[in-house]
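Before the break, one more example. Copy the sequence into your notebook; we will annotate it together after we see the structure.
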Amino acid sequence: MTLRHYKIFVTVCDTMNMTTAGEKLYLSQSAVSQAIAELENHYDSKLFERLSRKLYLTQAGQKLLSYARHIVRMNEETDSEMRMLKEGGFIRIGASVTICTCLLPQVILEFQKIKPKANVEVYENNTKKIEDLILQDQIDLGIVEGSIHSSDIISIPFMDDELVFVCGKQHRFKNLKKIVPTDLENVNFIIRETGSGTRDTFEDVMAANQISWKASWTCNNSDTIKSVVEKGLGVTVISERIVQNEIKRGELIRIPIAGIEFKRNFKICYHKNKYLSDIINQFIVTTKQFNA
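Here is what the structure looks like once it is written out:
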């Protein structure tokens, strides 16, 4: 099988339409169909189910897609690495919102001291989206605080993190030295979106302690959460690293919850089939140094 076959196959999987895939590749629909047929004959497996004029990946197709993406991407990386060799290399980093806010800038600054000519691209999103980007080979490394669920991804913890409960100066909890878990059932939580590592940690701990809660505001960034909580519109559980300055200035008030802690790890993640180039390995080493 040739690189052309794999490129056609990946494009068909991305569009789930032979005609659309052909348009993207400037090929006829018949040429795309022939390439898929040749792949199916070569592997003696049906890669797509064709039902009511729609395509559905079979189990064999899903398996081949994982490898095909890497074959195509490795070819692109080879071209890119060879072109950019004199300029220092290229790496794509996907990071969750908390990581981008409180850690990644320092990591990149330190990395650039070692690889001053390296080109770094950063994609910020929640943990679930970063996991998807790794599986699609759209990024080389992910740095996240949430749980990775795919068995195809290697996840390496490198730093501890803790979420803390905070409220604003106007909130009725402001003068309390400690609150009990049952107090959490009657407050409005300002919380991250589903798919966020912060949201996952919060929900897991609350469920483990059988505490019901309600979200009055769902946000996809930490700045909005801090602003809303500061104005007294609710409370939140958020990484201590993100709110440490606001706590020092008295804009937010941290209050311990009796018997409850929100512990987690920051993790470096990459696909198990990923070729770890020198520049990727160097970024991993640099990131692991930030383990305090």
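DSSP finds eleven helices and eleven strands in the chain. Residues 178 and 255 are 6 Å apart (CA to CA). Try to locate both features in your own notes.
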